[in-house]
Amino acid sequence: MVTIDGPAGSGKGTISKLVSQTLDFHYLDSGAIYRIIAFEAKTKNLITNQITQILELIDGLNIQFSDEKTFLYGKDITDLISQNTNVSKKEIYNYCLKIKNEK
User: Fold this and answer.
1) Strand 63-66 and strand 75-76: pairing?
2) Partners of 63 in the beta sheet?
3) pLDDT score recorded for residue 73
4) For residues 7-21, b (16+ Cβ closer than 10 Å) or e, as one string?
5) How far apart are CA 49 and CA 103, in angstroms?
6) Domain that holds residue 67
7) Most buried one in 7, 14, 22, 27, CB count within 10 A?
8) CA dihedral 63, 77, 87, 53 (to 10 degrees)
9) What distance in Å separates the CA atoms of residue 41 and residue 91, rounded to the nearest whole number?
10) Is 92 exposed, middle or buried (0-12, 13-18, 19+ CB in 10 A)?
11) Is the pTM of this model over 0.85?
12) How far apart are CA 86 and CA 26, in angstroms?
């Protein structure tokens, strides 16, 4: 596993994609995971202080990445999440990090 960290807009995604293609690694856009959570929480009318409900929502998410597309429950939501904001609550971030490390 290779991870690249840095501020928003610094080119992490571009570099990550190039490195993954060069090394023939799978590319995982972890930022998309947070946008998916924010998107689905908004769809369910959850607000950021509803941590328990959001963690339950995360447990039930069915996310797939394929050909630079992002799917939630089999539906392409690539364009929908590109306009959504990231999740910022520490509990949610830590939970997602745990899930990401398990994969």
Assistant:
1) unpaired
2) 72
3) 95
4) eeeeebeeebeeeee
5) 27
6) 29-102
7) 27
8) -60
9) 15
10) buried
11) no
12) 23
The answer for residues whose C-beta is within 8 angstroms of residue 42's C-beta and 6 or more apart is: 84
Phi, psi of 76 (to 5 degrees): -70, 115
Residues recorded for the chain: 103
* Number of folded domains that form the chain: 1
The DSSP 8-state label assigned to residue 72 in this structure reads E
Note down pLDDT in tens along the chain; length 103 residues.
778 888 878 888 889 889 988 999 888 777 788 889 888 988 899 887 888 898 899 999 999 988 878 999 999 998 888 765 555 567 677 777 776 676 5
Alpha carbon distance 6, 68 (integer Å): 21
pLDDT at 72: 94
